[in-house]
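Figure 2 data, in text form.
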Amino acid sequence: MGRVTLQDIANHTGLSKFAVSCSLSGKAGVSDATRKRVEDAAAMLGYQRQKPSDEQREITLIFHDRVDSVSYELRTMLQDGMQREAHRLGQPVRLQWTHDANMVEVMLKDSAGIILVGPHEQRTLDILKRSGLPVVRLGWVAPLEQADHVGGTDHEAGIAVGDYLLGLGHREIAFLRGEEGYRGRMERYHGLRESLDQCPDARLHDLRFEEDGGFIPALQSLHNAGVLPTALFCAHDGLALTAVSELLARGFKIPEDISVVGFGDFSAATQISPQLTTIRVQGLEMGATAMRLLLERIETHGLSAPARRVLIASTFVERRSSGPAPKRGKSLKDRKSPP
């Protein structure tokens, strides 16, 4: 029989692997009776713990340091979730914000495993693969790439927003993509399109523009073509705030004339009037899940097991920026800026 693992003890006792780990390491979170049950099972099965020096090797959290204002709040939530979970489990961690592959390579030497956040270059990914260390990624992976990944439900979010707006009677709906090249935005767009494709009289319009001052010209081009959207789904809350402020400045009423839905549910979503209907991304739970997934890989020496994709479901948050569709969309020409 091979070496007895934590999973063997979990299977024998009917407990979770984390309960077994906490019991054997003396961590809080389990009862005395559970701890005794696990210790007895470990003794019976012949479990041998790793050396204490191995247990104290640090988990390294590596965040790409080139981050825009849209992503910064989410990155902070991810970091907080990882560190809270590590503290709860008694696992030492160290943090580095960098995009330098050489620095990443140096940090691998004393690491038990890596959580990698953001769009790191291929050289960094190659270094991690050669290291043989367990790695969990928060950030898009290539199709069928053999890497553990924790992410959000971007595509589902698009479907949910589409279903919601259709239910309110909207049929002319625009997606404010803003700048191109972001995979998460593409997933939200395709989810929205999937929903609207189920309604024969619904039309989806994709607004792509430079985010610095490009919204109104893009909307004007739609109006010039005779398209008057009654609802906007914005790729992130920042775009939604821009849309709300620009529309209000031109005399539009929200949501009476046009509904606006964002994505993220970051702090600014409740700091405007009307407060923003949006999709809440569960950043804290995503970070905590990445930490648990990595520790499971380390504890079970499971590097040969298939890569896993874990999606943390977002939450729909309805506020006052959305409402029933008007009988007819309003044009920028129909509205004058308030005095």
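Caption note: The mean pLDDT is 90.
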